[in-house]
Amino acid sequence: MSLNLMLDRQIALEDTSNLPSQTDLSLWVTAVLEGRMDEAELTIRIVDSEESQQLNHDYRGKDKPTNVLSFPFEAPAEIALPLLGDLIICAPVVTGEAQAQNKTLQAHWAHMVVHGTLHLLGYDHIDDADAEEMESLETKIITQLGFTNPYQEQ
């Protein structure tokens, strides 16, 4: 059974060069969700540093832009919706990290989408055991997509 995915790609920045396509985003999200659910809806909003910093400050108390923020949707128990939530990805931060970590931009975007989507499913990296489980799953998915292990030293 294949995944029925509704992905809303929002671009909220002026420089739209080097952004992943709708097809890329769908491929990366599907790699996480396939086999886990039949139907899913989510939004990926690609933002500038200013919007990322504001959201990171408002929701996490951190006054700086960050690579990806995940906002899971929690429906009331009596309502069955395939809505996972929203990912907010800061293009300038992702670009800077890719350069600093000597990764291709495409590989780092894929990693941020996989990482954020796993957060929408409830995975986290707050303690060591959870971090190890999440990183292991990320690595498996990313390498299946044809990229190198994102946690491997470059």
Topology:
Layout: E1 4-12, H1 22-33, E2 39-47, H2 49-60, E3 68-72, E4 83-90, H3 91-100, H4 105-120, H5 128-144
Parallel strand pairs: 1-2, 2-4
Antiparallel strand pairs: 3-4
Structure description:
The chain has a 4-stranded mixed beta sheet. It is α/β, with parallel strands linked by helices. The longest helix has 17 residues. It is globular. The relative contact order is 0.16. Helix content is 44%, strand content 20%.
Would you report the number of β strands? Answer: 4
**β-sheet strand percentage:** 15-25%
Q: What percentage of residues falls in helices of 4 or more residues? A: 40-55%
What value does the average pLDDT take? 93
Residue windows where pLDDT falls under 50 for at least 5 positions = none
Query: What's the end-to-end separation, in Å?
Result: 37 Å
Oligomer: single chain
Structural class: alpha/beta
- Tell me the major beta sheet: 4 strands, mixed
The geometry reads as: globular
